[in-house]
Design goal:
The protein is of the alpha+beta class. The protein has two domains: 2-195, Alpha-Beta Complex (Cathepsin B, Chain A); 202-363. It is 47% helix and 9% strand. The chain has 13 helices and seven strands. Helix 3 (61-74) crosses helix 10. The longest helix has 30 residues, at 334-363. The N and C termini lie far apart (54 Å). The model has no long low-confidence stretch (mean pLDDT 91).
């Protein structure tokens, strides 16, 4: 049996998506570890139920979550907005392969390896999977595997025992591989190569974010929700029957869970607010420390409060969905209020996009 000493946790903000797996593998390769101050065995760790014990800021998972936020943001994933009908748009296909969260599109994988500064090779020949896994592990390199027929899209492989695959502890992630990873459930492998000069910079990542945000606004993602959720109109909430109104609200609430990615986005930028003490992890990655330039202060402050506001609005919609009685005739008129909230979400995205553009311009001067 050959097994790496891989103890890097996974973010609880996602299942074992490509971005989550990439983050933990990157941290292992860069020897980025946070001291375990004796708070690891919290309720979330033991049984998946957060007890609000307040240990998040010091647990070893905290550094991984911060790095996850960075990679999730810099590739544009946390800027995605999904259409009301759920049909993936151009930008979603650029970043995701099979669902809204996986981050496993070929373009996104190439960007993250390029930004992180590592060569990689994709392997799809099932006949050589175990041979290539063993060779990588023997070089002290974990392997990222895309899965098929599994509860999660990706997994990290950290060892082997003959033809058996060994994986790390996934318990901190929202979901772990089920069933356990075997050669038969692997679709493809991503083998990490040499450390190289990064192909992409902070400015490249910001331009990617700009491209995603601009597309979502130009394509009228929020406008589509406003038409479907309003009080008036031929295909509106107000004109629908109780069950139809309930379904429309349910779809809007589902979208708010996606919109919570704005939390990831905001955390990256608010790390560089004056007085922040948690910059070490970001400062060591590529040229992200350039965000500390005081010239970006106003833009970062705006991103902080705009997406803090989006976070709160998202929770308000989720809460309303859980308590509205759609059989009450007055529920016809909730559409007007919901349109105001959606309008604010759109306004916040627009304001943040302008901040990103401002930072790009200053970086290139």
């Amino acid at each position: 049996m050959t097994k790496l000493d891989f103890t890097i946790p996974f973010s609880g903000f996602a299942s074992t998506t490509f971005i989550n797996c990439f983050t933990s593998v990157y941290m292992y390769l860069e020897d980025m570890r946070q001291e375990d101050k004796g708070v690891t065995r919290c309720s979330q760790w033991e049984n998946g139920q957060c007890s609000s014990c307040g240990n998040c800021a010091t647990k070893p998972h905290a550094m991984q979550e911060r790095c996850f936020f960075l990679f999730d943001t810099i590739c544009g994933h946390s800027s995605l907005r999904c259409a009301y009908d759920g049909v993936p748009g151009e930008m979603e296909r650029l970043i995701n392969a099979d669902d809204f969260y996986d981050g496993g599109a070929a373009d996104n994988i190439e960007f993250l390896f390029g930004f992180g500064g590592y060569d990689y090779q994709a392997v799809t020949d099932t006949a050589v999977f175990m041979e290539r896994i063993a060779a990588s592990i023997d070089r002290n390199k974990p392997v990222i595997a895309k899965l098929k027929g599994n509860s999660v899209p990706f997994a990290v492989i950290t060892g082997y025992d003959g033809d058996e695959i060994i994986c790390p502890d996934f318990r901190c992630a929202q979901k772990s591989p089920e069933p356990a990873v075997t050669p038969a459930c692997i679709d493809s492998l991503y083998l990490i190569g040499d450390r190289v000069a990064p192909k992409y910079t902070l400015a490249d990542g910001l331009k990617r974010i700009e491209r995603v945000m601009d597309y979502c606004l130009r394509e009228g993602m929020w406008d589509g929700y406003m038409k479907k959720i309003g009080t008036y109109g031929p295909d509106s909430l107000g004109e629908d029957e109780p069950e139809g109104r309930k379904a429309r609200m349910k779809r809007l609430a589902e979208t708010m869970w996606h919109t919570f990615d704005s939390h990831n986005f905001a955390e990256v930028f608010r790390t560089y607010l004056p007085g922040s003490l948690n910059r070490d992890a970001y400062d060591s990655i590529n040229d992200v420390k350039r965000l500390a330039d005081p010239a970006f202060g106003e833009s970062i402050h705006t991103i902080n409060w705009r997406y803090g506001y989006t976070h709160d609005l998202a929770w308000s919609i989720i809460g309303l969905d859980e308590c509205i009685d759609w059989n009450d005739w007055k529920s016809h008129y909730y559409g007007d209020m919901l349109q105001v909230v959606i309008g604010k979400l759109k306004e916040n995205d627009g304001a943040v996009l302008e901040c990103v553009r401002s930072i790009i311009k200053l970086l290139e001067e």
